[in-house]
Amino acid sequence: MGEMEELRKEADNLKDQITEARKVVQDTTLQEAVAGTTLVGRVQLKTRKTLRGHLAKIYAMHWGTDTKLCVSASQDGKLIVWDTLTTNKVNAIPLKSSWVMTCAYAPSGNMVACGGLDNMCSIYNLKGKDGNVKVMRELAAHTGYLSCCRFLSDSEIITSSGDCTCILWDIETGTEKTIFAGHLGDCMSLAVSPDFKMFISGACDFTAKLWDIREATCRQTFSGHESDINAIGFFPNGNAVITGSDDATCKLYDLRADQELITYQDSGIMCGVTSLAPSLSGRLLLAGYDDFNVNIWDMLKAERVGVLAGHDNRVSCIGVSSDGMACCTGSWDSFLKIWN
Amino acid sequence: MEDVIARMQDEKNGIPIRTVKSFLSKIPSVFSGSDIVQWMIKNLNIEDQVEALHLGTLMAAHGYFFPISDHVLTLKDDGTFYRFQTPYFWPSNCWEPENTDYAVYLCKRTMQNKARLELADYEAESLARLQRAFARKWEFIFMQAEAQAKVDKKRDKIERKILDSQERAFWDVHRPVPGCVNTTEVDIKKSSRMKNPQKTRKSVYGPQNDVRTHSPTHTPAPEAKPATEEQLQDQINYWGGQLDRHRLKMSKVAESLLAYTEQYVEYDPFITSTDPSNPWISDDTAVWELEASKEPGQQRVKRWAFGINEVLKDQVGREQFLKFLESEFSSENLRFWLAVQEVKKRPIREVPTRVQEIWQEFLASGAPSAINVDSKSYDKTTQNVKDPGRYAFEDAQDHIFKLMKSDSYSRFIRSSAYQELLQAKKKKSKNLF
User: Fold this and answer.
1) How many CB pairs below 8 Å do chains A and B form together?
2) Min distance A15 CA to chain B CA atoms (Å)
3) CB contacts, 8 Å: B46 with chain A
4) Which residues form a coiled coil (chain A) (predicted)?
5) pLDDT tens-digit series, residues A260-283
6) Would you give the end-to-end CA distance of chain B in angstroms?
7) pTM here?
8) Which pLDDT tens digit goes with each residue over B227-236?
9) Does the structure's ipTM exceed the value 0.85?
10) Is B279 at the interface with chain A, CB within 8 A?
11) Is residue B370 in a domain?
12) A151 CA to centre of own chain
């Protein structure tokens, strides 16, 4: 196996060289650079609405682009579209499989999608002719559970799966257009860039990867976490990536510097991060943890500036509406709360 | 968590454990709720009582210490007595106790015939259910319970009290009171990959096994299948490509992040209060009505100057930009860009027709809205159009975008039309209130 050894050495050598190359541009750290900036004042958000209706753990939620509607998925086998201002249920969609893990709202507002242990992504048309919400497509090709899905448009959707791959689908034909393979562990989460040209995925191999949708290649890989990456998101300017992991930390990676900028951690936090969302300006990071709380971090100074405590069980999902006005949290206690 | 517990149990600096005298007997090996809170505040850098209670309740819910007279595992800052759980029962030993073990335990409880050990309602229900489920095995379970009860009777009274309470607390974690949080619940995404060889599958009451502890937050690295030659070669190619990428200096990156957050902070409702008010706080949807109206407020217009993407993102911004360009007879670039964006979202069967239409309108020779693309992109696009897909115009679109950014967009921002929008609304909004 002399050749294998050679190859392995070469691969390791390259990785070392890259670490060196990354060090070369470290003329400062983010902490030093923002030393002169004052910490954002204590952020106190209150629960303004509680959305009641699910009968079991809520696993996922996603805001619609119109800033008032959102969709949530629960283990009670229902997908509910809420008018968050009035707390009315606009749609309550029964699912074939109750083991749902993710849901998404199309930017147009015409469709929602969900998936889970059934290994499929089911697309529902909300604007059907007779007012009924029906399954439009069932996208089946993954050999593992569906952990996350996000629409690019009414015609395309990207999914991530426990089979370690992500797939770009054409919704109309129900077929896979591109398979993004490269992760060595279950893909747990994905996020699309603001310009819709790229997306990032976080996986159980402790790395996050940036993919070019059109070219179908992996542009960059970021490591540093010591456990599964459960949540991932883009910084609002599209040039940086935020990850949340079971190792109880969140990290900020910059795409142009190709490395980690800062880690958000605290000795008092001992449990994993389940979900995260940046505020509109990117100054604040809201992250949901296993200890039933959401911590608010000043993203530049890496210090906690607030806590949202109100759930009686793990916070499983979080999202900030597109105009930044409200934050929605979903929990295993079966409730969704709107905060601002 | 176990580090903190070890510190708590430390003889010198830990929580004082004592034996308390009660009516008829002594209560061995306890400490009060407020003791825990005090210790945490002193030793763990915790600022307030609320956080100490939260942390403490979590540790109790996981079963590291428990209230001696209650099934509900929470921490209260008062004289309620608590006891430490024995390491045998710690969650880090990855217990997955079977229902048969639970049945033996409940059965044993009924044999012990003491008022304080009476089963709670939910436990009685569970016992009834288990009896039905294990009807055939029941004789066996009964024998086990009997055997254990005998052993227990021989134990020292005080030792028994402690062990009994610890055993009860263990079951409180794994079979919680209905309505309480079950900390042993695992996310289904993770449970489907649990091939953790350290899971203790042996019976709780089986012979003492060699239990290994491990820290919950540092997962062992994923089982790496030995990489094939092809995979290694792929990796080498990938990392080789990565080596040569251009990396921006950290200082520049930090500067740009800082600048971005500073520029947008006034638009961030979590930091700067919005005007008109946030609908969730005031129940007044004025701010959304303003957004939907065709007349953009000053703050919104100001945002268009941050970058071309802001104008293109905002529907009213796009309209104003287009209007301005039309007044200059140079709108073909923007219209091309918008058309290409639109075709990317179309269902695949409509794409070929649309691509042809766009080609005819903007790029074909003699096109009515001819755009100027560099020859390289033009040639590539000509090729793409023969087998049209969503990204047929990608190169041309990138080129046009750069042109718009440096030319049309800057003119728009400097134009009197834009400046007027920026100024005029100020007066108007004053009149609204």
Assistant:
1) 231
2) 7
3) 268
4) 4-31
5) 999 999 888 888 999 999 999 999
6) 56
7) 0.82
8) 678 888 888 8
9) yes
10) yes
11) yes
12) 13
